[in-house]
Amino acid sequence: MLRVEDKFCCSEQELTLIQRRLEVVLAADTNQKSPLGYKVTSVYFDDYQDSKLGDNLSGVSHRNKYRIRIYDDSFDTIKLEVKYKAYNRVAKLSRTISWGQMEALLLGRTIPDPQPSGENPVSLFNLSIRQDLLRPKVIVEYDRKAFVYPAGNVRITLDRNVRHSRDLERFLQGNRCAYSPVPRMDRVLEVKYDSFLPQFVAGLLETGNLNQTSYSKYGMSRMWEG
After folding, report:
1. Secondary structure (H, E, C), 122-159
2. Tell me, what's the pLDDT at 221?
3. Containing domain of residue 203, as a range?
4. pTM greater than 0.90 (yes/no)
5. How does pLDDT run across 26-56, given as a tens digit for each residue?
6. CA 81 to CA 217: how far, in whole Å?
7. Beta carbons of 38 and 32 less than 8 angstroms apart
8. Could you read off the pLDDT of 149-203 as tens digits, one per residue?
């Protein structure tokens, strides 16, 4: 199912204002183990032509991303994800994989796939590794606070301190990477929902100065990588 995903680059002042409003009205995402939120770390992949990056920078309306994601530096749960975007609507295919499978993918190797399918991210990764030489390109990390509301299946995330690294070796050693910040655009508000956004929730997000953007953490991190 395609969900609406709207993004806004914010100042810290704007994010703080919005967060204070949301904390009063909406429930925190149950995945959060700390009131401070949680850390998201993603390894993004691209092919030998960097076509994912090219599509992003060119503003192609229909595109996809390939990534591996962990939370709070823990490898207990490792997510393999393929995310599709059509204008401002998105869908995500996700599968939990093992440490060994993650390591193989990071080395550019395919992994066992007992149930090949176009809806299986393992199948899509394997196909792109074989055909397009899909390889890891950059690690993106940020600190996230998340809020949810059941009507409309609303999920609002406030991301701070977006940073990047290419040190895959240290990532495998427990995410001991040295990260560099993404200058000026390191705070992002994301609003996701199914068919409608309740009016009162939209009101909580109003600051009088928010401008919607096609901001991509992957694209910005690749632009600023050393």
Report:
1. HHHHHHHHHHHCCEEEEEEEEEEEEEEECCCCEEEEEE
2. 92
3. 3-224
4. yes
5. 999 988 888 889 999 999 999 999 999 999 8
6. 15
7. yes
8. 999 999 999 999 999 999 999 999 999 999 999 987 889 999 999 989 999 999 9
pLDDT digits (tens, 9 = 90+) for 133-149: 999 999 999 999 999 99
Tokens of 16: 């703080």
The enclosing domain of 67 has a CATH number of 3.20.100.30
Q: Please tell me the distance from the alpha carbon of residue 195 to that of residue 68, in angstroms, as a whole number.
A: 28
Q: Which two tokens stand for residue 209?
A: 């100065």
Q: How far apart are CA 157 and CA 29, in angstroms?
A: 9
Residue 45 tokens, joined: 């992949």
Considering its fold, how many domains does the chain have in total? 1
Question: What are the φ and ψ backbone dihedral angles of 222, each rounded to 5 degrees?
Answer: -65, -35
Is 160 buried (19+), middle (13-18) or exposed (0-12) by CB count in 10 A? middle
